Amino acid sequence: MALEGFNTAPATDAEQALLTCCRSLRWAHRVAEHRPYPDLEALLAAADEASYDLTPADIAEALAAESLTPLPAGAYSAAHTALSAAHAAYESRFGHVFVICLDDIPAAEALDRVLTGIRSRLTNDPEEERLLTAEELRRLARGRLRRIVGDFSSQPVP
User: Is the pLDDT reported for residue 31 higher than 80?
Assistant: First the structure.
């Protein structure tokens, strides 16, 4: 029923919901215009395909709307300082925020994973990092898309 709600929602509503997954207008339009999807896997495959086709400008558009990785509740000030410094170094080197998908990572490990990720990716050349960033955006969009399709189950079907 949730997928049916997404499939039958007005195009503008579907696109607005998709923009919460990936802030590329081209990506959201492309995924919305191929509705209806027979199942969630078909929707995720279409989202992946649209992600793989993102241009550098599309990626920049999506990254401009991403925010810094939040600190877990109760994080101590040294962690805050370390994460802030790592984010600043990354943004200085690559010109955009650091993105990483933490969907399968336990909350207790998230901070370490982010710090390790930033530090290891700071050594990448810009092209390698562009590819990794695009992959992380794709993974983030998949997780967010799964959640928004669930949100459509609570909306009345027209």
Answer: yes
